[in-house]
Amino acid sequence: MNLTVENRAALIEQYQPLVYHILRQLPGAPPQERVDVISEGTLALIEAVDAFDPERGVKFITFAYLKVKGRMLDYLRYRRPLIPLYGATEFSAYTRIIGFHERRSVPEVLDSLRVAEKLLSMLTPAEERILRLMYQRGYSQDEVSRALACTRANVSILHKRALNRLRKIVNSKAAWRLAFEP
Question: What is the tally of structural domains in the chain?
């Protein structure tokens, strides 16, 4: 799409309310970061104007909406801690088993690692790989997606699923007996 500078600026200005509309829809956008989120959305809108190809048969509003919302969500994801709040309790149970934050004797640490290995082995292979990469090697979701040659969305879904499954395993008495058996 060949736009003049004036047409481009007018198009950006015309669709700027879209950024604010999306911001109101975002769950948990912290008030102190609203300006940054709006800036990210505006940058995505500018990129959408530059990248839009009407020949593909998609309306500009649809194209821009997806680019802006995706960019704003990505910004919020990167600004949040590595372990999302919904997963913190599940993972804290896992870290208590391993004893990351305690001074422990070598036999106790080895026992904890044995239990953690059994817990991880109860997950699917993909879930286990994702948790190992993220929490043992410290990879981000982007790095995990590159390492496993899949999309970031798949990593996010499997990560959430793994934490939920781990929570169920940790809360299951039968799983605990299995984990603590020699």
Answer: 2
